[in-house]
Amino acid sequence: QLQLVESGGGLVQPGGSLRLSCAASGFMLPNYAIGWFRQAPGKERGGVSCISSSNQNTYYVESVKGRFTISRDNGKNTVYLQMNSLKPEDTGVYYCVARSSLYGTRCLYAANYDAQSWGKGTLVTVSS
To answer: Per mean pLDDT, which range of 83-87, 92-96, 115-119 is the poorest?
Structure first.
């Protein structure tokens, strides 16, 4: 059974950094695309970054390019999202999600993942 658990959220001042972790169980990461999504209060869940299946290419939405870095540690079956230079607009609940055989920028779109493949999320608050 595929399971994802996010951690690492918290309260941080603008300009600060956080590293989120997404620990996977029930499947092996290398064959899966992993996406990070966030949902701000009153807004829909949107893609932030992802790693596509197989070729390990990484993708970012424009608003986080140069500030966020996604990476995976296959030995620990964990995906990370390093977030630097955080801004108040980065505030939200961050979710990770997985799907096999998902390639290219399709991994940035929530509709391409099964409803049961999402973690429960971790809250990030960027505020002074």
So the answer is: 115-119
- Nearest CA to 47 out of 104, 111, 114, 126 is that of 111
pLDDT at 12: 98
Say how many residues make up the chain.
Answer: 128
pLDDT at position 55 over 70 = no
* Tokens matching residue 83: 């977030």
What's the CA angle centered on 119, arms 18 and 72, to 5 degrees? 55
* Segment 41-50 long-range contacts (CB within 8 Å, at least 24 positions apart): 41/91, 41/92, 43/92, 45/95, 45/110, 46/110, 47/107, 47/108, 47/109, 47/110, 48/81, 48/94, 49/81, 49/108, 50/107, 50/108
Over range 65-81, report the average pLDDT. Answer: 94
User: Rounded CA gap, 14 and 128, in Å?
Assistant: 6
